[in-house]
Amino acid sequence: MMKLSVREFDRAVQRAIRRIPPQIRKHLDNMVISVQKWPAPELLEEMGLPPDEPLLGVYTGASLLERSHFDTLQYPDTIQIFQEPLEEMCETLEELEEEIEITVVHEVAHFIGMTEEELADLGYE
Fold first, then answer.
1. Do 61 and 79 meet the contact criterion of CB atoms below 8 Å apart?
2. For residue 72, what pLDDT band results from cuts at 50, 70 and 90?
């Protein structure tokens, strides 16, 4: 299990984001990425997950498939990354950055409406 400071973890997130292919990374331009220690119990309950579920990240917002140009201004789309569950599953910094990358890519996929097959084609199974 890893244990990084908030600053070290933020740097790992930045490095992981740089590894994301440009066709996916471009969708992060108007998105907030927030790092939290743990998911709130209310979030897990809202998602129908047990309190001990190791949630790594979550996307909040309306996907591009759900939007219309007639929609009113909304809060910015957000990806929350949960530091301690990610640290618990990783033993090395390289492994941690890879898991952060995978997590962010999967959350962006929710935003842009990518299928699991499309993610697999990019190497994110």
1. no
2. low
- Give the H or E element holding residue 3: none
3-state class (DSSP) for residue 20: coil
**Terminal Cα-to-Cα distance of the chain (whole angstroms):** 23
Q: What is the CATH number of domain 6-65+75-118?
A: 3.30.2010.20
* Alpha-carbon span 103 to 59, nearest angstrom: 10
Tell me the DSSP string of 25-94: HGGGTTEEEEEESS--HHHHHHTT--TT----EEEES--GGG--TTPPP-PPEEEEEEHHHHHHH-SSHH
Q: Which two tokens stand for residue 111?
A: 């935003």
pTM above 0.70, yes or no: yes
